[in-house]
Amino acid sequence: MSLDGRIALVAGATRGAGRGIAVELGAAGATVYCTGRSTRARRSEYDRPETIEDTAELVTAAGGTGIAVPCDHLDPDAVAALVARIGRDHGRLDVLVNDIWGAELLVEWEVPVWEHDLAGGLRTLRLAIDTHLVTAHHALRLLAATPGGLVVEVTDGTADYNAEHYRLNAYYDLAKIAPIRLARSWAHELRDHGGTAVAVTPGWLRSEIMLDAFGVTEDTWRDALAAQPHFAISETPRFVGRGIAALAADPDRHRWTGRSTSSGELGRVYGVDDVDGSRPDAWRYVVEVQDPGRPADVTGYR
């Protein structure tokens, strides 16, 4: 899984899946530009303690080179400057991970569109879709200049699952289907440039925000099972990171182009495990156990 000499940009690397992906790309040897709005000097509206500087230091500690660059991906000039810097520093971009989200505080769960706050819903779409388009507009030109580039659109849910299921509310539903379609668009647009584009979803992620919501830590996460037994299938952000690092290192990765996949499938195909040595297959579990209302039991799924 060597990514020595590869240059990666993880857009939205402050916390959660973005941080896990950045760290695992670094562990494979890549130079990783870690972007986001939360820095040690200034917090985003999340007002959380995680910062892109923290992520960059974790990348370097894992064996790569982490570079923190503050960037609001709704600002085209800021994204253009970021990509220009990568071009000046390295002359290439090998991996782009579009993991920008930032709308947990805006989404109202299971609320019909006529009752959902309109400004919050539209802001959700801007953060979840416009940011990905702005980033692709500026970054894909540099990535396409070198054959073999990889674009990963991070979302919540596989193409099959999202096509069949309503995802919490109209805004969230659209926000999480869009990256799957964008990956298909990038696959089409990069096909004459030797590029690959894939949509990837983690499973039930033990992100910093999720752990806080359950009132647990990574060390005590099993305490949350009393309130939500299906949380037993959850995974660390490093698991999806390991799968994406393996995908980036695969010389035959183009076979994935245009597809939607999950951390569980990547783990199975590439033989990578979560940090505890398990290999959770969350989306199969959701379909076969959680959604049908069966008792929580991860036997055969972890």
From TrEMBL:
<dbReference type="InterPro" id="IPR002347">
    <property type="entry name" value="SDR_fam"/>
</dbReference>
<dbReference type="Pfam" id="PF13561">
    <property type="entry name" value="adh_short_C2"/>
</dbReference>
<dbReference type="InterPro" id="IPR036291">
    <property type="entry name" value="NAD(P)-bd_dom_sf"/>
</dbReference>
<protein>
    <submittedName>
        <fullName>SDR family oxidoreductase</fullName>
    </submittedName>
</protein>
